[in-house]
Design a protein that fits this description.
By secondary structure, this protein is mainly alpha-helical. Helix content is 54%, strand content 5%. Strand 1 (156-160) and strand 2 (166-169) form a beta hairpin. 19% of the residues are buried.
């Protein structure tokens, strides 16, 4: 896999520059993934329903993309899960901080995305929402932990696909 190869090449480069690189899994439980999906849906719901108040008086929720509309409906069906989801996300921040301290980590290295740039249509609004959403969740699998915990992250182009497209490592 090209994204893993770029990440390993970056680890090799860092080692050659004098850094100690140790493979350590990050603490992200299945509960985190579900809580993050819920939070994402909550943001879409907020955008969809409160856009006129927080963005612009002429905001038109009917002009939002299908992903936002589906996520807003998903949240409306499960809004009662919000307190537990927020607790899970807050706990993940603490667990990540403790994980770094326990393993004496200065930084974490991972791919930015789970696979290289998908073909046109892979994430199309024409793909049924459940399938497209799962594709998107799998594709962006590495960024939510930093997004939810507020931990610093940067994406750097550290490799190229066989087609010459950049591969990001964070």
């Amino acid at each position: 896999d090209e994204t893993r190869a770029a990440t390993l090449a970056t680890a090799t480069l860092l080692t050659s520059l004098g850094h100690e690189v140790v493979e350590v899994p990050l603490p992200a439980a299945d509960a985190f993934a579900e809580a993050f999906k819920h939070y994402w849906a909550m943001l879409a719901f907020s955008t969809h329903h409160f856009g006129k108040r927080v963005m612009h008086p002429q905001f038109d929720k009917s002009a939002t993309d299908p992903l936002t509309q589906h996520l807003a409906r998903r949240f409306a069906r499960s809004f009662w899960r919000t307190p537990a989801a927020l607790r899970t996300l807050k706990r993940s921040e603490r667990e990540l901080r403790e994980h770094f301290a326990q393993h004496r980590l200065d930084a974490a290295l991972s791919p930015v995305l789970a696979h290289t740039t998908p073909r046109l249509g892979h994430l199309s609004p024409n793909v049924p929402f459940p399938e497209m959403f799962e594709r998107l969740v799998r594709y962006a699998a590495f960024t939510p932990l930093n997004n939810a915990t507020g931990s610093p992250a940067i994406s750097l182009p550290m490799g190229r696909t066989v087609e010459g497209l950049p591969i990001g490592v964070q």
